[in-house]
Amino acid sequence: FRAREFTKLLVDLGPAFIKAGQALSTRPDIVPPTVLEELAQLQDQLPGFDSKLAMACIEQDLENKVEDIFLEIDKEPISAASLGQVHKAKLRSGEKVAVKIQRPGLREQITLDLYIVRNIAIWFKNNIGIIRSDLVALIDELGKRIFEEMDYINEAANAEKFKELHSKNTKIAVPKIYREATSRRVLTMEWIDGIKLTNINAVKKLGIDPNEMIEIGVSCSLQQLIEHGFFHADPHPGNILAMEDGRLCYLDFGMMSDITQQSRVGLIRAVVHLVNKKFDKLSYDFVQLGFLSEEVDLAPIAPAFESVFTSALEIGVNKMDFKAVTDDMSGIMYKFPFRLPPYYALIIRSLITLEGIALSVDPNFKILGAAYPYFARRLMEDENPELRNSLKEMLFDEDSLKLERLDDLLTSATKEKQLDTEKILDQTIDFLFSEKGIVLRSELVNILASKIDSIGWKTVIKLNDKLPSKIRSKTIEKSSKINTKQIFNISSINKMFNTSKIKPGFKRKIFFKKLPKILIAKDTYKMGIGLMRKTSEKGLIRLVKVAAGVEQ
């Protein structure tokens, strides 16, 4: 009840306090879980302001009469938020546009409100010992972002950068910015006819599958986070529209954020350690990512991670409930001395919002399940040395190749529609014949030797069965009845050899194209010799055991 009252109070206090509440809703290191739930419901919607003030703002900022800029403009706004409102209009050249106009006096009001909020934060910092995070730094970061969001020239630059980064993605649309009708307080962009993804029936009437739109949105969000390091931090239902031509359109680029290459690699590495249940290493990842200081004792944190993630991982990454996991993580972050970097808070907000949109389309949607194939693809394709080590760490335990992990990784990676199969095969060959691939080469020789041995033994059994009963070997017959499952149903080997058959995209022509590269590798000859030796050894040992009547 108190949490609900607190949220209502923030709305009553105005734009700066609404933004502060939204920022706190992604900070489990500062706010208890019960308050987080209420703050997450905080809506950035306020009544519109007088259209005369809006038109006056246009004329003042663009230094021209409204009628000289626009052929027509709706006097009533189509939407209004805490920072501004949007009007539908048509330029003199005939193009339909959306015109975003800032609230009058907003900069002065925000400045005063932030000054008050910052002083409250200073008092909390000096008098309330239980808050570990630097509230003053949080308010300063919030202020920086609000002023960036109020600068529509900055938003126009963000939109153009986003459009350029995703220019090769034919499924993503970004409105054109009309710079000649844009200023610090007025933003004019292309009018987009589209449907909110949450309006499922309307999306279906366009002849579009809502689930496909969600797939495009998840894929695009992951590209933003991991490939480009420049992401849309506010993908609420009103900012993502399904278009009639099947594209997904992003709107409102006021709240964007950057992630460094090091942080992007760190996030993928953390996913690897999470999937492998290496909770001690996961704890260290959080130090590397800036969530924990190097002085923090990690000993009690690893068991806390284990208690949160073990049961979730048992059902598989594809079925993990992101909201439930983040809620549990919130408890850990509030309990231990975590300090969340600003980019992480925005990532969580972005993904939770995206999952909320997806759940309105598909109640069984799991964003971690949708995201894991992308992470698998990056792990398989990325040439970054740290990720190459992470791939090795994913596939090996104490120098033993874990084929079930390889199978899972390939299964997940090939669910990604943009998977570059040829590139994966190239990198697999490069890794296989590199110095670091010596263990993998040895393991593959053992696997192939076992496979050849099992095929050979199966052939011997079949031949023995076809012989007349007088000359049939009873020892071989007895051995085949005892242990055929042990010989032939070696699950890891079956997985290894069935992988290329069940994965779409692994075509024979690609393999044969790379065959010369495999044949000329200097270690191919060594592997061949080793394979013959291992196969001979296994065959000899088997014959001795059969002759001695030893069960296999």
Architecture overview:
61% of the residues lie in helices and 8% in strands. Strand 9 and strand 10 form a beta hairpin. The radius of gyration is 30 Å and the shape is elongated. It is of the alpha+beta class and 552 residues long. The strands form four sheets. Strands 1, 2, 3, 4 and 6 form a five-stranded antiparallel sheet that branches. The longest helix has 29 residues, at 438-466. The protein is built from 24 helices and 13 strands. Helix 11 (261-275) packs parallel to helix 17.
Question: In a few lines, what is going on in this structure?
Answer:
By secondary structure, the protein is α+β, with helices and mostly antiparallel strands.
